[in-house]
Design a protein that fits this description.
The structure holds 2 protein chains of 2 kinds.
Chain A (H helix, E strand, L loop, with lengths): L7 H11 L5 E3 L9 H9 L3 H17 L4 H7 L4 H9 L7 H11 L3 H7 L8 H13 L8 H16 L8
Helix pairs in contact in A: 3-8, 3-9, 8-9
Chain B lengths: L2 E9 L5 E8 L3 H24 L12 H4 L8 E8 L2 E14 L9 E10 L5 H4 L4 E2 L1 H15 L6 E5 L4 H7 L1 E5 L8 E5 L1 H9 L4
Parallel strand pairs in B: 5-7
Antiparallel strand pairs in B: 1-2, 1-6, 2-3, 3-4, 4-5, 7-9, 8-9
The chains are: A mainly alpha, B alpha+beta.
């Protein structure tokens, strides 16, 4: 389909219509629609260790902030069942809105979490490398030991360093 | 790598059309430069608005340098309109299609506009005497063209800040407050007929 363009005459009219308006749009939600096929496609975008890193990151970060699953689910306005799936089911790809809510509540950068969760792809190899390293060092247990705390802190530092955060709210 | 094509803006002072560049695939540096250019102008404008007890624009705190990191992700693409070495407006698009919400769009992909903003000196509400008119129109046109190139027939959607709803309502369908949006903003979508009206005029 050949793209259409606006004539000068129409543009003049549209420009006059815009004059005096405040023009801005804000997005970020929802990046993706629901649907099984899309879930599958989104899941394919993330390799298993990266997705494992996402689950572990959510779980570790929640516990580091001393939040129960129930409390986090409530604060982030996410279903408890879904949070359980996120932390325990490596094949589950949460909705971007859910990732957004969790990232905000856990004070983690949103775009990186969208990548780790399988909702977006990144050209940044450092992020995926760090995720794989983190996943390799991580095992879910009830309390974080020193080694797990170190692994979490190291990975969060890498996430923050990417400077992809601070999306306007 | 960025690419350019000429587009025309309306000079508010002389009321004629001037050539500008629509720059596609802006870099992170481009966004940082735009922010450094826009921020002091915006700040001065806000001081004037405060002194006059006038409302501030709802996007007064936007910082495009903070959005630059989004370009690390393949899911985002940024366009801008440049004239005189300055960015006159910016737009961030999601390169991942969303599903259309209009009844006639159900199941069909649509382009999603993440952010769209005109430079502070082009907003009459901020400056009183804008330099260029139609920057937002040109960016919206670029979004429509990109949607067409992607095979989406110009379908596009966005969430509007309340102060901008009147602008989008002229050309798009207001689908109401979106309960899924964190700020409960109104969602707007443009269909093929509205694309024709927006680009060619005639009956809305």
């Amino acid at each position: 389909m050949k793209p259409q363009r606006m004539s000068d005459e129409i543009f003049r009219k549209r420009a006059a219509e815009e004059d005096g308006c405040m023009v801005s749009a804000i997005g970020l939600e929802p990046l993706f629609a629901k649907g099984e096929e899309l879930h599958r496609r989104r899941g394919e975008a993330t390799s298993e260790p990266v997705r494992l890193a996402f689950s572990t990151l959510i779980s570790y970060r929640r516990r580091a902030l001393k939040l129960s699953m129930e409390t986090l689910a409530q604060k982030a306005r996410v279903d408890l069942d879904e949070l359980l799936q996120i932390e325990q089911d490596m094949s589950y790809v949460p909705e971007p809105r859910t990732v957004h809510q969790l990232a905000t509540e856990l004070k983690l950068p949103i775009p990186q979490l969208l990548v780790l969760s399988g909702n977006a792809t990144s050209a940044n190899a450092e992020l995926t490398d760090a995720a794989v390293r983190f996943a390799a060092r991580s095992r879910a247990v009830e309390r974080l030991n020193r080694e797990q705390s170190d692994a979490l802190n190291e990975f969060v530092k890498v996430l923050i360093k990417q400077k992809v955060q601070n999306i306007e709210k | 790598m960025s690419s350019r094509r000429t587009c025309r803006l309306r000079s508010a002072e002389r009321d004629d059309l001037v050539d500008a560049d629509l720059v596609d695939e802006l870099s992170k540096d481009d966004l940082v430069r735009a922010h450094l250019d826009w921020a002091p102008v915006r700040l001065e404008a806000l001081k004037r608005l405060r002194a006059a007890n006038l409302p501030w624009p709802e996007h007064w705190h936007w910082d495009w340098s903070q959005k630059a990191g989004m370009l690390d992700l393949l899911a985002y693409r940024c366009m801008g309109i440049e004239h005189g070495g300055r960015m006159q407006g910016l737009m961030m698009l999601s390169t991942v299609a969303v599903k259309g919400r209009l009844a006639q769009h159900l199941g069909k992909p649509a382009l999603y506009v993440e952010f769209l903003e005109t430079a502070p000196w082009n907003l009459r509400a901020l400056t009183g005497t804008p330099q260029f008119l139609g920057v937002g129109v040109r960016l919206l046109e670029a979004a429509v063209v990109f949607s067409q190139q992607e095979g989406f027939s110009g379908r596009l959607g966005l969430h509007s800040l309340p102060q901008s709803e009147g602008f989008y309502r002229r050309y798009m369908t207001d689908l109401g407050l979106d309960p899924k949006h964190s700020q409960r903003l109104r969602y707007f979508e443009m269909d093929a007929q509205q694309v024709r009206y927006f680009l060619e005029g005639g009956k809305s």
